[in-house]
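Students often ask why inverse folding is considered easier than folding. One informal answer: many sequences map to the same fold, so there is more than one right answer. In these notes we will look at a single instance of the problem. The structure comes first.
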C-alpha cells in the first residue's frame, strides 16, 4: 500500500504588518496635517506641544509606529473607501473644522478654554493638568463637544510623552473605549486613531485590554467608515501580537467571523493585516480553524491568491492556509475552494510560460508547505498538469526546503492515482527525482520522499513498465545501491527496498541490480533485521538491537526484503547465489515469534522460489526441526498463502 508523506507542523514567525512602509518625521507629519483637509480636520493649533511621532515600545516593531498614517496619509485615504460610501458631516468625515466658539455654553466653553491652554502650553505639566478635564467631555451629550475633545486627545497622542499622560490619566482610556461605541463617525475616527497610537506601547496595550477595548474594536470592524476599520484592525493586530489573553478575548467576542468577513475588502494592506490576525488566532487552535472554514474563510483566502500580487499579502494569506492545512477538516475545505490551483499559481513559473518574476523565497516555502500538507488529502483529485511541471522544475533547486517539499508533494499526489503517475512520468519526473537524490548530500528528508515518489511511479499504472526501465536508463540502479550504505532509518530503508521490488518486476533490471550489488545488500539488510528481531524477542530494549536501524520492530523490513529477493530470484545467477547463502537464514525466520505471519509467509515464498536449486531441498531434508515447522504451518497457519507455501515445500 502506498504511504502518504507526513504533514509538517506550523511554523512560528512574527509579522510586522507594515514594516516596509516609510515613516514620517515630525515636520512631515505637521505639514501633512496642515495641508490636507479631506480626511483630517484643519490644524487646531495643538502642534505647539508636539515633538514628533511616538516611539515604539519595547518589543514592538518600529515599522508599526504611525502605521495608518504611513500606509494611508490624508491624501490617500480616499482610496480606502468604496465609491458608494462618501463621507459627510452626517455619516462620516467632513472637510470643515468644527469651530471652538460656537457659543454652545457649558462644556463647549470649557473646551474652548482647554484648547487655549493647549495652544499656549510650553511644557508637559500643562498637558498633564488639562487632559483630565477632557475625560467627561468624551461622553458629553453634545456631539460637537465630543468631536472637539476626541480630536484634541488624538492630536496629543501623536507624541510619546503626551501619549503616556493619556494612558495614565484616570478614567481616560475607559472613556475612550465607551465613547467609541456611541460617538458619531467623525469622533469615532479620532478615538480609534488614539487607541491605535496607544497600542504602540506595552502600557497602552495593557490598559486597552483591561478596559474592554477588544470587544469595542471588534464592533468597530463593522463600521461603514473604512478608516475606522483600518485603525481598529491594526490595534487588534498589535493586541494579538503582544498582549497576553487578547487572542482568547477576540475569540470569545465573536471576532473570527467578523475578520473573515473583512477579507472581501479590496485594499491589499488592509487585507494583509486581516490575514495575519487570522493566522495568529488559528495557530495551534483547532476550533478557530474550523470557525474560519465555517465562515467561508478558505474561499476568500483563495480569492486573494488568485487576484492579488502584493507579496506581503500573498505571504500572510499562505500563512493562514498553511495553518489550516494541518487540520484534517480544514484541509478538505481548502481543497474544495480550489486551493491547490491557487497555490500552484505562486510557484515558480513553468519554462513554457512568459517570463515574469518568481515568488519570494518565503512565499514559495509557504506555498510548498501548504501543498504538501494538503496533498495527502488530494490523492483522489484530478490535478492540473502545471503543478507537476512546476514541482519537477523545483527539484533542481539549491534550496533544501524547496526540494524536500516538492518531492513530498509528488509522493503524495502519485499515491494510488494512475493519472497523476502518468503525468509525472510524461513530464520527466523520474529523471528529476533521481538527480535530486544525487544532489541530496545524503539527507534523508530529501531521499525518502524522492524514493517514495519513484516507488509510486514504478507500479500500478499503464506506463509502469516504461517507468521501471527509465530508472535503469537514468542510472537509478547505481543510486539505489549507494543508498543502502548511507541511509539508517527504518522508513527510508523500507522505501528503498520496496522500490527495488518494483524495479525487479522488469526482467531487464534483475541482472543489473545483481551486478550493482543490490542482491547482496538486501541479504545483508535481512540478516541485520533478523538479529534485531532476535534480540527484541529476548526482551532487550530496541535501542540496543542495532546502531544502524533504530526501530522497535523490524518485521516490516524483513518482509520487504524477502518480497524483493523473491522477484530478483527469477534471475538464474541471483537464484543460485541466494540458495547457497540464504537458506539457513530463511529457515531461522520461520521460528521467530511475530505478531503476524507476514514474515514467515514472505520467507516461505522466497524458499519456494529458490527450491528449484538442489541446495534448498537438501537443506530442508537434513533438518528435521525445519520439516516439523513446515508441517505445523501447513496445517495450522493462519493465512492461506502461508499454508500453501509450506505444503508445496513439504
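Output (designed amino acids):
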Amino acid at each position: 500500500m502506498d504511504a502518504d508523506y507526513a504533514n509538517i507542523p506550523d511554523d512560528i514567525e512574527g509579522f510586522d504588518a507594515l514594516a516596509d512602509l516609510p515613516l514620517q518625521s515630525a515636520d512631515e507629519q505637521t505639514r501633512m496635517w496642515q495641508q490636507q483637509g479631506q480626511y483630517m480636520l484643519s490644524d487646531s493649533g495643538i502642534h505647539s506641544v508636539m515633538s514628533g511621532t511616538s516611539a515604539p515600545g519595547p518589543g514592538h516593531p518600529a515599522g508599526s509606529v504611525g502605521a495608518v498614517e504611513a500606509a494611508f496619509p490624508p491624501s490617500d485615504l480616499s482610496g480606502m473607501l468604496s465609491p458608494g460610501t462618501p463621507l459627510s458631516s452626517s455619516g462620516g468625515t467632513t472637510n470643515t473644522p468644527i469651530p471652538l466658539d460656537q457659543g454652545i455654553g457649558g462644556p463647549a466653553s470649557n473646551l474652548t478654554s482647554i484648547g487655549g491652554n493647549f495652544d499656549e502650553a510650553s511644557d508637559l505639566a500643562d498637558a498633564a493638568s488639562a487632559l483630565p478635564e477632557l475625560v467627561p467631555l468624551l461622553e458629553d451629550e453634545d456631539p460637537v463637544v465630543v468631536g472637539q475633545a476626541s480630536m484634541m486627545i488624538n492630536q496629543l497622542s501623536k507624541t510619546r510623552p503626551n501619549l503616556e499622560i493619556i494612558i495614565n490619566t484616570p478614567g481616560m482610556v475607559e472613556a475612550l473605549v465607551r465613547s467609541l461605541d456611541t460617538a458619531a463617525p467623525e469622533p469615532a475616527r479620532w478615538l480609534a486613531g488614539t487607541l491605535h497610537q496607544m497600542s504602540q506601547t506595552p502600557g497602552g496595550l495593557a490598559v486597552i485590554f483591561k478596559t474592554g477595548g477588544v470587544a469595542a474594536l471588534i464592533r468597530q470592524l463593522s463600521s461603514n467608515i473604512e478608516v475606522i476599520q483600518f485603525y481598529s484592525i491594526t490595534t487588534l493586530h498589535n493586541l494579538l501580537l503582544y498582549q497576553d489573553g487578547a487572542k482568547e478575548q477576540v475569540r470569545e467576542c465573536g471576532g473570527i467571523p467578523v475578520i473573515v468577513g473583512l477579507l472581501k475588502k479590496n485594499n491589499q494592506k488592509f487585507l494583509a493585516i486581516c490575514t495575519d490576525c487570522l493566522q495568529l488566532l488559528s495557530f495551534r487552535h483547532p476550533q478557530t480553524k474550523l470557525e474560519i472554514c465555517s465562515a467561508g474563510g478558505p474561499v476568500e483566502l483563495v480569492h486573494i491568491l488568485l487576484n492579488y500580487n502584493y507579496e506581503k499579502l500573498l505571504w500572510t494569506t499562505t500563512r493562514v492556509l498553511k495553518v489550516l492545512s494541518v487540520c484534517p477538516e480544514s484541509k478538505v475545505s481548502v481543497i474544495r475552494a480550489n486551493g491547490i490551483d491557487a497555490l500552484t499559481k505562486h510557484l515558480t513559473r513553468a519554462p513554457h510560460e512568459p517570463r515574469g518574476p518568481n515568488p519570494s523565497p518565503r512565499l514559495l516555502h509557504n506555498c510548498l508547505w501548504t501543498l504538501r500538507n494538503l496533498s495527502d488529502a488530494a490523492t483522489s483529485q484530478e490535478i492540473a498538469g502545471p503543478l507537476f511541471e512546476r514541482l519537477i522544475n523545483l527539484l533542481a533547486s539549491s534550496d533544501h526546503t524547496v526540494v524536500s517539499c516538492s518531492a513530498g508533494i509528488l509522493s503524495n499526489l502519485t499515491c494510488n492515482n494512475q493519472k497523476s503517475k502518468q503525468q509525472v512520468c510524461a513530464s520527466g519526473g523520474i529523471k528529476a527525482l533521481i538527480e535530486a537524490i544525487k544532489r541530496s548530500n545524503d539527507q534523508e528528508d530529501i531521499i525518502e520522499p524522492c524514493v517514495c515518489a519513484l516507488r509510486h511511479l514504478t507500479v500500478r499504472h499503464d506506463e509502469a513498465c516504461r517507468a521501471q526501465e527509465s530508472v535503469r536508463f537514468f542510472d537509478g540502479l547505481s543510486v539505489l545501491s549507494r543508498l543502502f550504505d548511507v541511509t539508517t532509518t527504518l522508513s527510508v530503508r523500507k522505501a528503498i527496498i520496496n522500490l527495488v521490488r518494483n524495479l525487479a518486476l522488469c526482467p531487464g533490471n534483475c541482472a543489473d541490480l545483481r551486478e550493482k550489488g543490490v542482491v547482496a545488500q538486501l541479504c545483508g539488510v535481512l540478516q541485520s533485521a533478523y538479529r534485531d528481531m532476535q534480540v527484541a524477542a529476548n526482551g532487550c530494549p530496541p535501542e540496543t538491537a542495532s546502531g544502524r536501524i533504530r526501530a522497535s520492530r523490524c518485521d516490516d523490513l524483513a518482509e520487504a526484503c524477502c518480497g524483493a529477493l523473491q522477484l530478483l530470484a527469477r534471475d538464474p545467477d541471483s537464484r543460485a547465489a541466494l540458495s547457497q547463502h540464504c537458506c539457513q537464514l530463511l529457515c531461522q525466520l520461520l521460528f521467530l515469534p511475530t505478531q503476524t505471519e507476514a514474515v514467515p509467509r514472505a520467507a516461505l515464498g522466497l524458499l519456494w522460489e529458490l527450491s528449484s536449486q538442489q541446495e534448498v531441498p537438501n537443506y530442508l531434508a537434513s533438518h528435521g526441526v525445519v520439516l516439523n515447522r513446515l508441517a505445523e504451518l501447513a496445517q495450522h497457519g493462519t493465512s492461506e498463502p502461508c499454508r500453501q507455501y509450506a505444503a508445496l515445500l513439504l
